[in-house]
Automatic annotation (TrEMBL):
CDD domains: SCO. PANTHER family: ELECTRON TRANSPORT PROTIN SCO1/SENC FAMILY MEMBER (PTHR12151), LINALOOL DEHYDRATASE_ISOMERASE DOMAIN-CONTAINING PROTEIN (PTHR12151:SF25). It comes from Roseovarius faecimaris. Pfam families: SCO1-SenC (PF02630). InterPro entries: SCO1/SenC, Thioredoxin-like_sf. This is SCO family protein. It comes from the Bacteria. Keywords: Copper, Disulfide bond, Metal-binding. One of its GO terms (molecular function) is metal ion binding. Cu cation binds at residues 81, 85, 172. Disulfide bonds join 81-85. Belongs to the SCO1/2 family.
Length: 209
C-alpha cells in the first residue's frame, strides 16, 4: 500500500509542479514570496485552492473562510490510514509546535477523503490525539470531492475485503498545503520535508506576507 501511495504521490507531484510552473509565467508584478519558495510557485496561486464547504469535528458546517482565518497547513487523508497519514500529520503537528514556540500561530487542518467512515466524532478523536489545535474536517462525498478538486489532490477508494465492507484503504496524494488568509495557497510540502524545514519555510512566508 505504501508503494502504491508513493507512486501516486510522485505522479501527482509532477502534475502539480507543472501547474505551478505555468502559474509563475502569468503576467504581473514581482513575487513577494520568491525568497521562500523551493518550487516554482507564484504568489496568490489562484489555480490551486479555493472555496469549500465542509463539516468540522464538532458537527458544524464551515467554509474555507471560517477555516483559513489564520495561516494554516492543510492535509488530505483518512483516519483509518495505517501509516502515511498519522506520520505526515504528526510531522505537521511538530512543525506547528516549533512555530508556536517562536510566537507564530499556525492552524493544522486534517481534511478527510473518507467521508463514509470519518464522522465528526471520529475526526475529533483522531485530531485530538495528534494536536490540541488540529481541526478535523469531513462532509458529504460531494463536499469532500469539491474540496479535493480545489486543491488538485487525488484519492481513490480500494475495493473492500470480501465479507468486510467496512475494511478498505484509500489511495491518496500526500501533499501538505500552506494557505494564508489574504493570499490563499502559497506553497506545498512533500513527505520528505522535515518538521524543522517546514517550520522554517512557513515562517518565511508569514514574515513576507
Amino acid at each position: 500500500m505504501t508503494r502504491t501511495i508513493a507512486i501516486i504521490a510522485a505522479l501527482a507531484a509532477i502534475g502539480l509542479m507543472g501547474a505551478l510552473y505555468v502559474l509563475t509565467m502569468r503576467s504581473g508584478g514581482a513575487d513577494q514570496f520568491a525568497q521562500c519558495r523551493t518550487a516554482q510557485v507564484a504568489g496568490g496561486a489562484s489555480a490551486i485552492g479555493g472555496p469549500f464547504t465542509l463539516v468540522d469535528e464538532n458537527g458544524q458546517t464551515v467554509t474555507d473562510a471560517d477555516v483559513i482565518d489564520q495561516p494554516a497547513l492543510l492535509y488530505f487523508g483518512f483516519t483509518y490510514c495505517p501509516d502515511v497519514c498519522p506520520l505526515d500529520s504528526a510531522r505537521n503537528a511538530e512543525a506547528v509546535d516549533i512555530l508556536e514556540e517562536r510566537g507564530t500561530m499556525v492552524k493544522p487542518v486534517f481534511i478527510s477523503i473518507d467521508p463514509d467512515r470519518d464522522s465528526p466524532e471520529v475526526m475529533k478523536e483522531f485530531t485530538d490525539n495528534l494536536h490540541p489545535r488540529m481541526l478535523g474536517l469531513t462532509g458529504t462525498p460531494e463536499q469532500v470531492k469539491a474540496a479535493s478538486q480545489a486543491y488538485r489532490t487525488y484519492y481513490q477508494k480500494q475495493e473492500p475485503e470480501e465479507g468486510d465492507e467496512e475494511f478498505y484503504l484509500v489511495d491518496h496524494s500526500t501533499f501538505t498545503y500552506l494557505v494564508l488568509p489574504e493570499h490563499g495557497f502559497v506553497e506545498f510540502f512533500r513527505r520528505s520535508t522535515s518538521a524543522e524545514e517546514m517550520a522554517e519555510q512557513v515562517q518565511c512566508f508569514i514574515d513576507a506576507s
